Amino acid sequence: MLKPVEPQDSVQAWTLSPAGDSCLVLNFGAVLSAERNRLVARSARQLDAAARQGLLPGITDIVPAMVSLGIHYRPEQIACQGDESPYEALAAQLEAVLRQADDTQASEPRLIEIPVCYGGEHGPDLDEVARGLGLTPQALIDLHSGQWLDVLMVGFAPGHPYIGVLDERLDPQRRKSPRTQVAAGSIGLANRQSVIYPLELPGGWNLIGRTPLTMFDAYRAEPCLLHSSDKVRFVPIEPRQFASLSEQEHTR
Length: 252
Description:
The structure is a single chain. This protein has 252 residues and is an alpha+beta fold. Helix content is 23%, strand content 26%. The strands form three sheets. The chain has a seven-stranded mixed β-barrel with strand order 5-12-9-10-7-6-13. The chain is elongated, with a radius of gyration of 21 Å.
C-alpha cells in the first residue's frame, strides 16, 4: 500500500501523498491562506519549468488547487531504482526540485481588471445579499471592488476562477436552492470568495453582477482568461458600458 512521503526535514511546508497509481498530491496544509495559496502557485510554476526542461520525465499535467497541487504522470515513464515504486521515485524527484526553490526568481503576478455590472438583471441577488449582511447595495459593491484579490484556483469548469479572500464582511452562505442555469460571466459571492461563471452552468452562488469579458474560449491561444496566481480587481461599470463591451467581445 502506498503511503504519504514526508519531506526529509520538518521545515518543509508540504507533504506528498498518492492519489491512485498515476497521480500524486502535493499538499501545503488544510487551511486556506494567501501565503499557502501563493506557495502552491509558485511550486506549480517551478515544477512545470522543470518538466519542460526534461528534469521530470513522465509528468503529463500539473493542476494547482487552493492549498494543493495534483501531479499526473505515466508510471511506465518514471525511472525507478531497486524495488521502489514509480510513486516513490517521482516523489523523490519532486522533492529534489522543490528544495531548489529560489524566492528571488518568483515572478510578479499578472494584474487584471474585471469590469462588472452590479445588480439589476445582471446581479439579481445583490439587494437580498446586502440586506442579509447588514449593508447597503452600494456598500457591498464598494467592498467587493475595493481591493486586489488573488485567483486562488481555476476549476469546476474550464476557465472557472475562484477569487479571494474578500473582506470579512462579505461572508454570505450559498443559496439554499441552486439555479439550474446561470449566465456566462455572472459574478458569484459566498464565503468571502467570488467565482466567475465561464459558461452557462448550474450554480448555487449568490449572483451580484456580471462581466462582459469572455472567461473561456477554446479557440484562443490561451483559452482561460485567468490563471492561478493572477491578481484581479473588480471594476464597477454601468449597463450601457456592459452592452458596449459585450458587443466588442462578441465581434472579436
